[in-house]
Amino acid sequence: MANRHRGEVDAELGGRKRRLVLTLGALAELEHTFGAHDLTALAERFASGRVSARDLVRIIGAGLRGAGEIISDDDVARLASPGGAVDFVNVAAELIAVTFGFSREGGT
């Protein structure tokens, strides 16, 4: 079971249960990917609530890699989920919420 106090999230992706966590390294990866200068800028970007499908791939990929999985963003993009795109949105939202302390509605 995922430990939300450590920022962990469990999700069924690609036909199996996987753990995701945005470690410091994963957050640094996302800062670079999104051109954010610091964690505050990254958190503000996520707080807007607007994400593209490519953003979801990058966030979920960083979370999987943060949990120790060796997976590329291209492989993440090919994963399926039982609930389709909505599941990916929910996984990313939960991951961001536990990492930055946001409520699921997007605020703090």
State which percent range the strand residues make up: 5-15%
Kindly name the structural category: mainly alpha
How confident overall, as mean pLDDT? 91
Indicate the percent of residues in helices: 40-55%
Q: What is the strand tally?
A: 2
Shape: globular
* Largest beta-sheet characterization: 2 strands, antiparallel
In terms of per-residue confidence, which ranges show pLDDT below 50 for 5 or more consecutive residues? none
| Order of adjacent strands in the largest pleated sheet | 1-2
Rounded radius of gyration (Å): 13 Å
End-to-end separation = 24 Å
Count of individual domains: 1
Q: Helix count?
A: 5
Please trace the helix and strand order, writing H or E for each element.
Answer: EEHHHHH
Structure description:
- This protein is mainly α.
- The protein has one domain (4-100).
- 51% of the residues lie in helices and 11% in strands.
- The protein has helices spanning 24-34, 39-47, 53-66, 73-77, 85-100; strands at residues 8-13, 16-21.
- The protein has a two-stranded antiparallel ribbon with strand order 1-2.
- Strand 1 (8-13) and strand 2 (16-21) form a beta hairpin.
- Helix 1 runs antiparallel to helix 3 (53-66).
- The longest helix is centred in the C-terminal third of the chain and has 16 residues, at 85-100.
- The model has no long low-confidence stretch (mean pLDDT 91).
